[in-house]
Amino acid sequence: MFNETIRGNRLLLTAAAGAMTVALGATACSGSSTDTAATPETSATASTQESAAGSADAPQSVQTQLVTLASNQPFDATIDALKQAVSSNGMMILGDLDQAGALQTTGLQLAGAHSFFVGNPAAGKMFFEKTPAIGTVIPLRMFVWADNDGTASVSYFDPKPLFEAVDPGLADGGQKMSDAAAMIAKAATGGEGQSQSGSAQNATLVTVDAKGSFEDTMNAVKQAVSSNGMMILGDLDQAGALQTTGLQLAGAHSFFVGNPAAGKMFFEKTPAIGSVIPVRLLVWADNDGKSHVSYFDPAPLFTAVDPQLADGGKKMSDAIAMITNAVK
Predict the structure, then answer these.
(1) CA distance 44 to 13
(2) Cβ contacts of 213 within 8 Å, gap of 6 or more
(3) Rounded CA gap, 102 and 280, in Å?
(4) What is the pLDDT of residues 136-156, one digit of tens each?
(5) Considering only CA atoms, which of 62, 211, 82 is closest in space to residue 137?
(6) Which of 120, 243, 251, 273 is 20 to 30 A from 10 via CA?
């Protein structure tokens, strides 16, 4: 949703320090390149993968909220504290998005908007073994932003219910990720409490079954993005990166799509929208080679950030649905 490619060579994400880790290859997300340690492979069955993600006819929904902690420090100091908190919790900064910097190209001057992806290459492989659809949730975005008064905050969507939307069997892993994110955000902001931005929303994981092969589906998504006046602003080759752990997936690749002009309008309303956009579309294949496209419907996430963005979220939802319907 902003005119910024996600730069870099590799993006890694863990579920929790020392608990579960996954390496995500990125053709576009800035951050240090880190190799993951190989762990014994245990393959998930295709039927498990398919049922975990649901289908276009049976979307999986959960109640979720945007977690926002106001910082007692300025924007730059909050970023420094976040980096230190990530390290102190046995995790790493594995990629970042300078949304404020990118939006300067549209003429928008934000006080601060920067997303960080954190992780610890240790055990997230088991998530993708359960279902590659978990790529709709990880890497987890922790978003540092500042309002017009210069007050900094850290925002992120609680990963626990999102893990459960992908597969209820991942609830424990989602809780560990949620606990780790809360510790990092608390240390970064120096605060004791948390506030919820907007009301709880019924976030929905949508999975569309594709008619073509994995490569055909990737190409169809790219074409549909362009045909609908949007752009691919970054992508993550999760399957390629996970080969370093010994896990051989049939396919898992995320695309981040948006439109810089529309993104400017949303960021003008509230920079907290950077916790949602650009929107992630995950193309993945099960063990039978059947391809799917999964994503979290952006409409309720927009509303969770700010109820006044509901109309914009609906338009984004419609645009994403048009894109994904092209793979059927």
Answers:
(1) 20
(2) 289, 291
(3) 18
(4) 988 788 999 999 889 999 999
(5) 62
(6) 273
